[in-house]
Amino acid sequence: VQDDFYAVIPAGGSGTRLWPLSRTSNPKFLHPLTGTDRSLLQATFDRLAPLVTAGRVYVVTGAAHADAVAQQLPELPAENLLVEPSPRDSCAAIALATEIISLRAPGAVVGSFAADHLINDVAAFHATVRAAVDCARQGQLMTIGITPSRPETGYGYLECGDPTAIASPGAPAPQQVLAFREKPSVDVATEYLKSGHHLWNAGMFVWRADAFLDQLRQRRPDVAEPVHRIAAAWDGASRDAVLSAVWPTVPKVAVEYAVMEPASLDGLVSTVPGDFGWSDIGDFETVGALFGHDQDSVTVVGDGSVVSLDSDGVIVVPSEGRLVALLDVHDLVVVDTPDAVVVCRRDRVQDVKRLTELLRERGRDDCV
Amino acid sequence: VQDDFYAVIPAGGSGTRLWPLSRTSNPKFLHPLTGTDRSLLQATFDRLAPLVTAGRVYVVTGAAHADAVAQQLPELPAENLLVEPSPRDSCAAIALATEIISLRAPGAVVGSFAADHLINDVAAFHATVRAAVDCARQGQLMTIGITPSRPETGYGYLECGDPTAIASPGAPAPQQVLAFREKPSVDVATEYLKSGHHLWNAGMFVWRADAFLDQLRQRRPDVAEPVHRIAAAWDGASRDAVLSAVWPTVPKVAVEYAVMEPASLDGLVSTVPGDFGWSDIGDFETVGALFGHDQDSVTVVGDGSVVSLDSDGVIVVPSEGRLVALLDVHDLVVVDTPDAVVVCRRDRVQDVKRLTELLRERGRDDCV
């Protein structure tokens, strides 16, 4: 890819569906949930290296995690670590990074890549991103859609038009995105899978900075204006003052909802379908599928100690130096950590975050 | 009770049905499973105090627990702590204590009281024991039978004759024990409950030392002979030598099976029915029933932290400083400790010991 390409890694969110493994103080992107000793964030950074030098990678993260991010990514220039004083959702984070990059490097093409995804076929990923950068340079707001492999109800979908003629080498041809679709029911997801016109929205975007900022100004001036003030002050003496005064006023909204969905209705959004073994490490079902091994008819993640009798269908994430023992239990998820253990019906893994909400209600923020 | 009465507390067994709370290295009788800060052993000692001075209480325990027992019972004379080099089941332990007491105090009446039972009505317990001592003095081998309150399948039963005329004040009249019955099916247990002639065998015995030792010699000379050699050497210089040479040869057998059952068939065993709120802290079902409190539709034992959502029928024993979180799980037992957590189907609590067996098979004795 060329020197005008910049990568943004939004490293926010505490991964409450992976609680108690993922904590507010130690969120999932800092964990080595990659099958190696690299964290999800480091794996994301490594994966981008062939596309973009470290000097053109930006990370947006919360104040609580800035030190950990800097420690995990020593190659990242300090001025490319953008620290949010508080979480204001993805539109604010991505818009701020896009505008700062645009001010420092006019004409930049910016890609945004979540810090908590896994990708098997890195070469195919690179080809897909290159194709998306090519299209983005023409002014389209690009998403990277994932070719669905199952009727997944946990993701949003992109409804696409027919492939265009302008294919890049080694990657599928781009398709226009006709609409963004919410997480579907299983029946609808099955139709989507059959249709051949629906891709998973993986939350990866590529755009020319000016094209995105133009759309943001048109569609959400209430976001664009404060973000612009902050970005303009970022590399000057008033950064802290402006940031602390203005950042809390930025509306909390997802970038899909604020910009991409409305822009898609005006024909301004396209996608390059990706088929590179993508996983969103979103819940313990995924963690079990990717990193678990079978032992005594249950799925054990990692090297911890598990003993199991007359049990099956259980995903166990044991904690180092502790033992998890199961007797005649079925279809559960058991996640053990040094200070908390969760026992959850397996088909409720998506709702583990509700336990964190309950803990907060009860003043047990220390556990979350 | 008179000065000829001595109490033996066999403090053996590792309580594997209460694993991982109870460990080989820290068995249940050392735990404060009493609703107070006294351990089960201490509670047993306290309960006997009005019947027998500390100088006439004996504890039989394993080498691994001798120090802990001495520490928990500072009033116990050192010479009354009988340490088994290895576990040889209840007949060996009780016979050794009975014979040592008999040699030190000829004519003694000896009562044996397990270290891991709880009793609500201590006054009724005392009256029952006094009545049993009165009968024992006449030469009968006495058991204390518990008036059943439910069709319990987890205990053995005593099948009894009609009450005799010789009642002691404040206690039911003694009854002859016609037979010992094994743990019954639920149908049989229901019949037993209806019959009015069946009591739970609580494993509490009272006998004149000479009467018991005479029966032991007749029925199990293979036990009586080595135990006699050890007891004769106990208060002399050769104790350690004889103990280490002879103890390992004592057959492992329960005192019920070796002596009481056969003696009952010859009309030598009687019982005083006890109705004093007796509990055998045998498994987590009992622990939950006795010490649990309701919280979010689950039963929580102790002061630890539990958070629960959409769950019921769960007994949770949390560990101090750790959190147990439940989501949509039912009819489980979850026991958390500093180094191990067990998740067990609730109607399998009796089989928790099988997990300890499995751990031993796998060389994980460190966890047991």
Q: What would your notes on this structure say?
A:
The structure is a homodimer of 368-residue chains. With 368 residues, the first copy, chain A, is of the alpha/beta class. Chain A is 33% helix and 26% strand. The first copy, chain A, has helices at 40-48, 66-72, 89-104, 122-137, 186-195, 209-219, 221-234, 239-246, 255-265, 284-291, 352-361; strands at 5-11, 57-62, 81-84, 109-112, 117-119, 141-146, 157-163, 175-181, 198-208, 269-274, 278-280, 292-295, 298-301, 305-309, 315-317, 323-327, 332-336, 340-345. In chain A, the strands form 4 sheets. Chain A has a 5-stranded mixed barrel with strand order 6-9-7-8-10, surrounded by 4 helices. In chain A, helix 3 (89-104) crosses helix 6. The longest helix of chain A is centred in the first third of the chain and has 16 residues, at 89-104. Chain A starts with a strand and ends in a 7-residue tail after the last helix. The A-B interface holds A 20, 305, 307, 309-310, 321-329, 332, 334, 336, 339-345, 348, 351-352, 354-355, 358-359, 362, 364, 367 and B 20, 305, 307, 309-310, 321-329, 332, 334, 336, 339-345, 348, 351-352, 354-355, 358-359, 362, 364, 367. Strand 18 (340-345) of chain A pairs parallel with strand 16 of chain B.
